[in-house]
Amino acid sequence: MIKAHPNVSQISNSMAICDRFVTAYQETHPNDTVLQHDLYAEGNIEIDSSNFQTWAKLSEGVKYSDLSSDEQILVSRQQLLQEEFIKADKYVFANPMYNLFLPARLKSYLDVVCVSTKTYKATTKGPAGLLKDKMAVHIQSAGGTYQNSDNPHMQALDMGTQYLRTILSQMGVTDVKGVYNEGNSKLDEAAMLQNRQQSMDEAVQLAERF
User: Fold this and answer.
1) Element (H, E) at 203
2) With the C-alpha atoms ordered 120, 69, 103, 11, is the resulting torsion angle positive or negative?
3) Nearest to 210 by CA among 80, 6, 18, 81
4) Cα(21)–Cα(50) distance, rounded to whole angstroms?
5) How high is the pLDDT of residue 52?
6) What is the pLDDT of residues 82-103, one digit of tens each?
């Protein structure tokens, strides 16, 4: 379960629906282990110059034990996230839409776990996913109506959902379903709560068969 909401103090539609999904999933899959990450609460994992410097040292033969403490923490955390992602059977991503895309930290997380030779391999025909027989759910809230629109132009504007599905497919995860809580900017508080409840009901039904 990957939560990506930057304002943890805000009552969030996507996080409320996500929490309802998790509760329903745990009730119907009591023997499953659910591992949750709150990306904005856990701190930054953005790939920056520190990563490239550390990777260069390791490629040159520097031992892990000879790296600085900050470099060891960086490498260990990213490797842990990659190993967790590879071992997982199912994925749930929950986020608000930000400017037609995903929140920045969710994109950074995907940058970390989408790694050549680990989650996909390069072939003459393009990337081939290494993660087989896995499923994913995308829970997203938005002020406008995109995925639930009959207008192809509006659907195409949701570039975050398109990207998430594309990068998951690159890693081999093609069974991706969604719960899209949309149109909230035009609703008053009562209507928004009703809209959220409808999405929660949809999430419960999806969790039971996920």
Assistant:
1) helix 189-209
2) positive
3) 18
4) 37
5) 77
6) 999 999 999 999 999 999 999 9
* Cα gap 94→210, rounded to integer Å: 15
Q: pLDDT digit string (tens) for 99-140?
A: 999 999 999 999 999 999 999 999 999 999 999 999 999 999
pLDDT recorded at residue 209: 95
Q: For position 54, what pLDDT does the model report?
A: 83
Q: Is 136 helix (H, G, I), strand (E, B) or coil?
A: strand
- Quick check: 167 and 210 in contact, CB under 8 A? no
Residue 160's CB is within 10 A of a number of other CB atoms, namely 24
Q: Is 132 helix (H, G, I), strand (E, B) or coil?
A: coil
Q: What are phi and psi of 182, to 5 degrees?
A: -125, 170
SS (H, E, C) 6-73: CCCCCCCHHHHHHHHHHHHHHHHCCCCCCCCEEHHHHCCCCCCHHHHHHHHHHHCCCCHHHCCHHHHH
Which portions of the chain are predicted below pLDDT 70?
Answer: 8-10
How many whole angstroms separate alpha carbon 4 and alpha carbon 137? 14
Tell if the pTM clears 0.85, that is, is over it. yes
